[in-house]
Every structure is written in C-alpha cells, then in structure tokens.
Amino acid sequence: MDQNYSTIGRSSRTKQAIEINKVLRNTYMLLAMTLLFSGLTASISMMMNMPPMTYLISVIGGMVIAMFVLPRFAHSTAGIGIVFLITGLLGFGLGPILSMYASVPNGSNIIMLSLGGTGVIFMGLSAYVLATRKDFSFLGGFLMVGFLLVLVAAVANIFLAIPAMSLMISAVVIMLMSGFILHDTSRIIHGGETNYILATIGLYMTIFNIFISLLQILGIMGGDD
Amino acid sequence: MDWMKIVAALALIMFIVYLFPRARHMMENSPKGSSADWMGFVVPILVIVLFVMLLVQLV
C-alpha cells in the first residue's frame, strides 16, 4: 500500500518536473525569438530615421497592450502574436535612442557594452537561480514596492531633470530588474508560473529595462549624454 | 518638448495606479525570507553593481 502511494507520488513529481522544464524551455525559446524580433524592428526604426517621440509612443503602446490586452489572450496561441506585437513595438521605439547614441563619439561602444552587459547580467542571474534552485518568492513585495518608488522618482525627475537623479534611478532600476530576474526565474522552476507567454513578457521587460538603464549610465559616465 | 513630458508623466502615473493594488497584494502575501535567503539575494546584486562599475570603467 505504502509502495503504491510512493509510486504515485514519484510519478506526480516527475510529471510536474517535466511540466516545469517545458515552461522553462518554451519561455527561453520565445524570449530569444522576441529579442531577435526587437532587434529587427529597432534596425528598421533606425533605417527609417524615426523621431525621438517614437520611443514614448511605442513604450506607452507596448505597456497598454501588455496590461490590458495580453492577459485576455495569454492562455491561447493568439498570446504569442500579442507578445511579438509588444516586443516589436518596444524594439521599434528603441530605434531613435540607438540612433542618438550611434551619432555621438564612442556611442557605438556604449551600445555594444550595454548590449553585452545586459546579456551577461541576464544569463549570469538565470544560471545562478537554475544552479542553486533557491526560492526567491519572498522578494515579490519588496521588488514591487521598490519599483513603485522608482516610478514616483521618475515622474518627479521628468520635471526636475537632475542628471544625478537620472543616474541614481537607472542604477536602482538595474538592481530591481536583477531582483525580478531572480524572482521570475525562481517562480518558473518552482511551478509558480506555468504560463510561458506571461513568463516571457516578464523576463523581456526586465531585459529591456536593464538595457535602457545601462545605456543611460554608460552614456552619462562616458560623458557623451 | 513640454507636451512629451506631460504625456510621459501621465503614462507613468497610470502605470503606478495600475501596479499599486498588485504591489499591496504581493506585500501582504509574499512569504518572509530568512537572513540566509536575503544573503542569497544581496550577494548576486553586489556582483551586478561591481560588474556595472567595470562597464563604466570600460567606456
């Protein structure tokens, strides 16, 4: 009898492990594809020489779709199309920012360092969670409150325009987004997130924010902002 | 441009309003971490800070 329960328990755990691996694999696959797609739309935007306001419009459009449209389609295949729409839009918005950096001396170096730095941060933190299998669910409230405070500071700095505050906000955003990578990856491997579409958009947003913040920090510190 | 600043501020405020209930829910329902758990978070974040400082040196 005990042996039967033990076999059922083991079989259930194996099924759960297979399910978690499937979510993780699908998330990383979709994330890789959306990042490539964003790169493509950013290149198109750069070639079209889009004006700076494109960034603002794209980010607002992407956020509105992510907040109000994606949750309705997250459990269907249409959700994949919505994810590509959001990431393509955000990539398109990056075009004018990248053009601006590319036009200043040392700008291409700043872009490449930001890109490489973002990749190293994401892969390093993901590997850390996957190797240690630590549970970072306790970070949820702390990260959300931190993020809200950063958003309030960002609203204030839109009008104050203090460069030191911009630098501080970017630094805190990188730390918070790093925390979100730990939190979100840990949620996937512990079965807290079973929808790879929502997992992908969460991780994509962290990568996007780290890249933008690194660009800003390296731009300011490089003296080319 | 001033209108861009106002639109950006309004978008951020909308985002704050949208996230606030979620943040409150997560604050109330997140499990408490032990000091070992927090160390497991602080150490990689410090490594990230050092890494960003290295990138700044490379610019």
pLDDT < 50 stretches of chain B: none
In terms of quaternary structure, the protein is heterodimer
Helix content of chain A: over 70%
Proportion of strand residues of chain B:
under 5%
Task: Estimate the global geometry of chain B from the Cα principal axes.
Answer: flat
Q: Which percent range describes the beta-strand content of chain A? A: under 5%
Determine the most extensive contact between two protein chains: A-B, 48 and 38 residues
Figure out the total of helices of chain A: 7
Helix- and strand-based class of chain A? mainly alpha
Q: What's the number of structural domains of chain B?
A: 1
Number of helices of chain B: 2
User: Number of DSSP strands of chain B?
Assistant: 0
Largest sheet of chain A: none
Overall mean pLDDT score of chain A? 92
Cα-based radius of gyration of chain B, to the nearest Å: 18 Å
Task: Describe the protein.
Chain A has helices at 2-47, 53-73, 78-103, 107-132, 140-160, 163-189, 196-221. Chain A has one domain (2-221). Chain A starts with a helix and ends with a helix. With 225 residues, chain A is mainly alpha-helical. Chain B has one domain (2-58). Chain B has helices at residues 2-29, 35-58. Chain B has 59 residues and is mainly α. The model of chain B has no long low-confidence stretch (mean pLDDT 91). Chain B has 2 helices and no strands. Classes of the chains: A mainly alpha (225), B mainly alpha (59). At the A-B interface, helix 2, helix 4, helix 5, helix 6 and helix 7 of A face helix 1 and helix 2 of B.
Q: What are its keywords?
A:
heterodimer; A: 225 residues; mainly alpha; 7 helices; globular; B: 59 residues; flat
Element layout with pairings:
The complex is a heterodimer of chains A (225) and B (59).
Chain A: H1 2-47, H2 53-73, H3 78-103, H4 107-132, H5 140-160, H6 163-189, H7 196-221
Helix pairs in contact in A: 1-3, 1-7, 2-3, 3-4, 3-7, 4-6, 4-7, 5-6, 6-7
Chain B: H1 2-29, H2 35-58
